[in-house]
Amino acid sequence: SARVMPTQERKLFSSTLFHKIFKAHTSLSLKKCKGCLYKISTSMVEKGTSLLKMMEISVAEAEKRTGKNAVNMQETYTVYLIETRPVDAASEGTNPVPDSLWRRYSEFELLRNYLLVTYPFSVVPPLPEKRAEFVWHKLSADNMDPDFVERRRVGLENFLLRVASHPDLSSDKIFYSFLTEENGWKETVFETGFQAKADSRLKALNATFRVKNPDKRFAEMKHYGDELQSVISQLLRVRARAADRLYGVYKVHGNYGRVFSEWSAIEKEMGDGLQSAGHHMDAYAASVDDILEEEEHYADQLKEYLFYADALRAVCRKHELTQYELEMAAQDLTSKKQQREELATGTIRTFSLKGMTSKLFGQETPEQREAKLKMLETQIEEGEELVKERNAECEEFVKSAWVDIERFKEQKDHDLREALISYAIMQISMCKKGIQVWNNAKECFSKM
Amino acid sequence: MSASVVDNTVSSGNSSVAIPTDISGQILDLDEDDELEVFSKDTSTTQTDGSSFNASMQTSPASMINQYKFEEEEEDADTKDIFVTVDNPESHVTAIETYITYRVETKTTRSEFDSSEFEVRRRYQDFLWLKGRLEEAHPTLIVHPLPEKFVMKGMVERFNEDFIETRRRALHKFLNKIAEHPIFSSSEDFKIFLTAGSGELTSHKKQGPGFLSRMGETVKAVAAAVRGVRNRPQEFTDMQEYAEAFSQKISSLDKVTQRIVREQKEYLEELKECGPTYALWSQSEQELAEPLKNVAGCVDNCCKETEEQVKHLNDHLIPVLHEYVLCADTLKAVLRRRDNIQADFEGKTEALATKKADRDADSKVLSLAWDSLVGRSPEEVKQQKQQKLKGEIKEMRDELDKAEDRLEWANNALKTDWTRWQKVMRTDLRSAFIDTAERNVSYYEKCLAVWESFLQSQRTDAEGNGKVDSS
What we know:
The structure holds two protein chains of two kinds. By secondary structure, chain A is mainly alpha-helical. Chain A is built from 15 helices and three strands.
């Protein structure tokens, strides 16, 4: 379903609020915009996504609620406001009030689990992390911390936008009602019975170990997913530690401010210069907060792909499962055919319990053999059907999954490259601030 | 008992004023009259045999100070006429010990030096000796501190390369500060330090005031310290307060800077792992491989720059701050010594007053009873006593006058040197801070260039691939 948006639609698109947001994303300066700081892949949007064409989506606010949970205990949780607005309405110049409803994180999780089961061949966009990880000392690991909540809000919006721009996922009804129907959505999801369709962990693990001939590309992709997860984790860890240290360096400079100020009180000619230099040291110390806040957004971008790696591996595991089931069916068929042959020719080529027992207890009667043969024939027929079915499933899966994996690869390359560029821009901004502060300080020192 | 008396001719001015060095020693030795004697010596051996007494050089302390001030202002305008460098550390191994010597090279146009270039080797002990001599000779002048004997924190080997280099730099600064000081630079001891062969230096060192005289000095100092000063002039109290406060502030700055260096080093440790992680990642990627490798390179470059910056802080700012921490202690010591001189004077004043009271009170009868018991006539005894007292009083008055002169001299010397020191301190610290600020700017500029080149490469890439990044 890759198609480029015709010019007419593109014009419509450009006047929406979302597109303004989108435009900010593609610019190389990090202007903070309403909504998220993430960039949505240009290619995705341009290739035409059904839902995003029709509506704007945003996660506008977060609020704390208290209520009774399943075991009747008081709990505090956060809810997020999802706002939607038809694209056309905004373009007409009027600014209608958007439709909105509140959802909590667990509902997002439910939605995602549904999508995972229902679209096993899609690389399903990840949710922002459940608990704060890779924290450094200033960041709070508390889920209720306002900074964490804010970053989660942004992450949730990003999730919705990604789903809404996905060629397959965006047209899902459950997704649509998640966005539009506050009440009864949960029941609707459960009614789909998706939970029953979910593959058990054990089954999946078993398949991974036993599959004989998985598609090479998927095996490579899985391996890539492992590597990606490992290296991004490492990068996030190192980055968090470095951020911690950098925070220390900047903050200690604040002490210069204090001492310079105290010192200036006992000096005559040096006093003014020292005092003003001290102010700049304070400014320097304070500047690190903004710097690291911006870096946190970069970390969030990396985290998204850390979790995407998992989604990627899930698709590969599903392939292994379908392939394994095909192989099982084929193997079963082969063995049944063999049994038939043995029975028909009377030769026992392979060891079988039947063979042994017949040797021990004597051959069966011709009638018994006939019956058995007939049963086998039926089974073989069924088996062949099953193999054909499974084969088709497998092929279908491989085809769809590979399309989405390619799409994902392109998106990842684009997004991560943009992330690296924005990181460079952040560093440049930090350097510029540093140059300014120290030049100012130098001037003050000259006046000492 | 000899004091080191040298001809301190200040060369830059037209008039040559011989400024006595160790006055207190001289006073003890001399039994001439009250006027300050000035001896001129032009050999390294010291004998107070009053060799050449130049009457024209007899001046009062006050006028000498004026001369000093005049010289100081002139000196600022003049170019340096003596250049001292300390370099080339070498280790020497003997049966008993291992030690380091440094090459001290002097280039000068001063007339009192026999030649224009000198090269000698000196060890830390020699520097200590020189400092001690200068302090002895000028108790209320501020001698720039020497690097410490050994590092307290951590087990720093004396022969560790960094330690030796740090020490060498500090020794170099020490000698240069002495050379720049109007009074110290004309010190005979300084000249000997710069020019004498090692044998000559050793024998000169032995010529210092003997053990007994030094003991005497110490006892006097302790006595004065115990006595305490009664009427310290406000200006010296102000100086004391300043010295205290300055000491605190500069120590804080030293600590803050050391903390910054520590944090920077730890930051560097973490940052060093970032580059390789990006490089590792690039190995799993295709499209992203190039930008990732690029970023890895950028991070590594920034690491190098950070390392340089930390080194600079360590090698330049920290030693200067450390020097001034030691200076603060010197200030306090100098003020203490001045106090002791004043206490000594006050003590002598009191003693004289008491003696005078004794003399006046003697006309009262008190001890006459005893004397009559012993069989002397009251008149005789009284005469004897009066005679004795008169002698004692004269002696004490002489001592008192000398103490007063000493005090006035010390106060003026201190005041002048204090002002001088403040100017030097201001210059030193200002340039150290400016230097640091410049270095930091340079650090950020270099990192900026690194990341901008990355951006540039990505833009060129994008344009090359037909994608256009809006910017």
